[in-house]
Amino acid sequence: MPDTAPKTGLIGSAYDKENDGDVVETGKRSPRPKDAATLILVRRDASHPRVLMGKRSGGHVFMPDKYVFPGGRVDPEDGRATSYCEFRPEVEAKLRLQTRRKPRAFGLTAIRETFEETGLLVAREAEMPDTYVKGWKRFHALDAAPHLSPLTFIGRAITPPYRPRRFDARFFMAEAEEALIDERPPVDGAELSDLQWVTLKDALDLDLPNVTRFMLGEIEERLEKPDLQRGPPFLRWTRSGHTSDRL
């Protein structure tokens, strides 16, 4: 059974408010959340840990001009993509809770989106097969196999019903030195610009969605207390308002 976290304080501030200036839908039926996945890469090659963040285009309806981690919507084919390895058993077990989708689909989406938005490869060198699922052609062409074992599931959040775009997002964290295939720098693209490795403290000074700010706190605690044994927070909206359990 999940343990219940407090519903006030930091949990309550994890969601963007209805009057925060962003687009809010009123008088319409709330859209069904779409599965999504996000990857938080952490570097430890400096005096303080750094995470990779980029700025979303101002033309986006969902979180325009906000700084976020790489990620995006799960494609139906992602769960069938070839991989170098699978999730660690404890990670897969947590991802199976309260979902019918294959756990590997979430991790592979996070890896694919990170590649598409930053050019970085969470992968190992491998001779890839000639066949591939939709969306993975460029990855295969590099003879790189995505690998899931470095990813840790650190949180899940569902966009509140008053937003025009809603996602049921799984957040993953991985050590960059372990996860990345090489030391290439991130490259700005159409989805994310101003890509940069920033300390957790400097990240908090950026224009962030509140859920991203919340996850930065989760990362900081995990980095400071690596032996901490507790499940990922699950942030969502209920009839009584914002709430969170731990999976």
What would you note in describing this structure?
With 247 residues, this protein is of the alpha+beta class. It has one domain: Nucleoside Triphosphate Pyrophosphohydrolase. The protein has helices spanning 89-95, 103-118, 137-141, 176-179, 200-203, 210-224; strands spanning 3-4, 34-43, 50-56, 67-68, 71-73, 123-125, 144-146, 152-158, 167-175, 192-199, 233-238, 241-246. The longest helix is centred in the middle third of the chain and has 16 residues, at 103-118.
CATH topology: Nucleoside Triphosphate Pyrophosphohydrolase
Mean pLDDT figure: 87
Q: Report the C-alpha radius of gyration, rounded.
A: 17 Å
Class derived from helix and strand content: alpha+beta
CATH class: Alpha Beta
- Cα(first) to Cα(last) distance is 8 Å
Query: Number of folding domains?
Result: 1
- Helix coverage percent: 10-25%
CATH superfamily: Nucleoside Triphosphate Pyrophosphohydrolase
User: Any idea what the CATH architecture is?
Assistant: Alpha-Beta Complex
Largest sheet: 10 strands, mixed
Number of helices: 6
Overall 3D shape: globular
Low-confidence stretches: 1-12
Cofactor: Mn(2+); Mg(2+)
Keywords: Hydrolase, Magnesium, Manganese, Metal-binding
GO molecular function, one term: hydrolase activity, acting on acid anhydrides, in phosphorus-containing anhydrides
